[in-house]
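Two quick folds needed for the group meeting slides. Do the first one here.
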Amino acid sequence: MERKIGEADFLELFYPIHYKIGMALEAALQAGELTRKQVSILWLIRSESGTGRSMRRKDIQRLLGTWFEISNPTITKVLYSMSRAPLSLIKVLDDPRSGREKQVVLTPKGERFLIKMVEQGRAFMRPIVAQFSAIEAREGFNFLQNVSTVHDRIFGHAVAQATAARNGRRRGRAGSIEPKPSGGRSKPQKSVQQIAVR
C-alpha cells in the first residue's frame, strides 16, 4: 500500500524549491538592473491592476505588504528610485478619481522593460517545462494553482491583518519623537508638526 503524503513531505519539497527555483527566477527577472521590490511592483502592476499599465499607490502598498515586511516610507523610496533616471520606469501622478490618492503609471520605457522582464522569466521557465509531457505540465500547473488558492483562503486574511497592524505601529512611532535626556532632565517632547515648522 502506497504511503500517504503528509505535511512533512510538502515541507521537504517546498522549502528547497523556494531557493532553487523561486530565488533563481527572481534573479532572472531582476536582470542585474532592479531590486526585488522594484521587480515586485512591476509584477503587481502587470498582474493585479486590471490595465497592466497603472495602479493606485495604496493598492501597491497593500499587496506588497503581503509579500514583504515593508513600510510606507520604504515604498515611497522604491517608487522614487523607479521614477528617476537611470530607470525612469514609472510616473507617480495624482489620481483623477481622488485628489488625496496617487496613481503609479508605467512610462513607455517601463512598458518596454516589463515586456522584456516577462520574457526573461519565460526563458527561465522554458527549459524546465520542456522536460514534462503536456499532461504532466497541466497536472503540475493545476496542483500549484490549487496550492496558491488554498494558501490564500487559509492565510490571506491573517496576512492582511498582520500587514495592517505593522503599518499602524509604524504610523504610531512616526507620530512622536522620543525626548533625549540632558543632565538628568528630560526636554519637552515636540510633535512632528512643530519640528516641521522650524
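Then this one, please, same format:
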Amino acid sequence: MDWIEWFGEHFIGLFNAGGEQFMNLFNSIVPTLVVLLTFTYAMIKFIGEDRVTKGIQFASRFTVLRYTLMPILSILLLTNPMAYTFGRFVKEEQKPAFFDSLVSFLHPVTSLFPYANAGELFVYLGIANGLAQAGYSQSELAVRYFLVGIIVILIRGIVTEQISKYLAKKMQNSAVKG
C-alpha cells in the first residue's frame, strides 16, 4: 500500500514541477519573445515588404550573403518553420545548400534570439545553465555560439553547393549516355 501512495505523490509531483517550469518561462522569456517578434514585424512594415523582398533577392546573388545573411534574416524575420520560404529567392540548384545553411543555424540562433526557434531552446539553455553553474558567463557563450554558427553555415552552404553541382553534372552525364 505504501508504494501506491508513494507513486501517487510522485506522479502528481511530476506535473507540479512541470507547471512550475511553465510559469517560470511564462514570467521570464515569453514576454521577451513577444516583444522581439513585435519589433521584427514592425521593422518589416516600416521598411516595406517590397523593399525587403528586393534586398533579399539582391543578396542571393552573392555566395557569402546567400549562406550567411539570408539564413540569418529568414530565421530572425520568419522564425522556424516559416524561414524555409526564403528558399524562393535562390536559384533551384542553390536550394539544397541554402536549406542546409538554414537548418544548421536553427540552434545557434537561439542563443541571442530565442523566439526564432523556441522549440529548440532547451538545447541552448541546457548548455548555458551548465556553464553558469561552472562559473562561466552565459553572455560570452551566446555570442560565441552565434558567431561560430555563422561560420559553420557559410562552410556548409559552400560545400553543399559544390556537392549539388557535382551530383547534378553526374546525373546529366549519365542521362546523356543512357
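Slide caption for protein two: DSSP finds seven helices and no strands in the chain.
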